[in-house]
Automatic annotation (TrEMBL):
Keywords: Acyltransferase, Transferase. Its EC number is 2.3.-.-. The keyword Acyltransferase applies. One of its GO terms (molecular function) is acyltransferase activity. The keyword Heme does not apply. InterPro entries: Acyl_CoA_acyltransferase (IPR016181), GNAT_dom (IPR000182). This is GNAT family N-acetyltransferase. Residues 9-174 form the N-acetyltransferase domain.
Length: 174
């Protein structure tokens, strides 16, 4: 297991047994607006993704980690994306699959673990997050964890014929 363990959750690398979880998550149309997905994913495509998930963050510029509870069940994902080792930054995104696991500190603990990891192990200078202006729970989470609102991307995401603003949050290593 990756050494990213908190009190109530731990983060680990993707494993082959995560195929069904990924299939359910990636084909959930409710998250397509933030993931940029336009069509469903097949299990075959997701299996290819899992087969390559072991590749190094320096090579693929991304790291996706499973958020697991104390019963070893995967309840969400936290992603580092657009990893930029030259400018020492990366984007971060988080999703907790089921409503019953939200607003219980899981996202907060996962964000703490990944922030500590990138600032101490990867020696990054900053993390950033792109959050829809209408996503109040995520905005509260990121602000609580020390991310600052640094800009608004006007009409950034098109959903069902309507443009939505996306807010850019940033956390610079102290």
């Amino acid at each position: 297991m990756l050494g990213l363990k908190g009190e109530n959750i731990y983060l680990r690398a993707l494993e082959k047994q995560d195929l069904d979880f990924l299939y359910k998550l990636e084909n959930n149309t409710e998250i397509w607006e933030v993931s940029g997905t336009l069509a469903p994913y097949s299990k075959g495509v997701l299996q290819l993704y899992l087969d390559n998930a072991h590749r190094d963050i320096y090579e693929v510029k991304q790291l996706r980690l499973c958020i697991c509870n104390t019963e070893d069940l995967v309840i969400g994902l936290i992603d580092l994306f657009d990893f930029d080792p030259k400018n020492l930054r990366a984007g971060v995104g988080i999703i907790i699959m089921e409503e019953k696991n939200r607003n219980k500190g899981v996202g907060e603990e996962a964000l703490d673990l990944v922030s500590n990891y990138v600032f101490t192990k990867l020696n990054l200078h900053q993390l950033y997050a792109n959050i829809l202006e209408t996503n109040a729970p995520s905005i509260r989470l990121f602000e609580k964890k020390g991310f600052q609102k640094v800009g608004i991307k006007k009409d950034w995401i098109l959903t069902d014929g309507t443009f939505k603003n996306e807010v850019l949050y940033q956390k610079v290593k102290s």
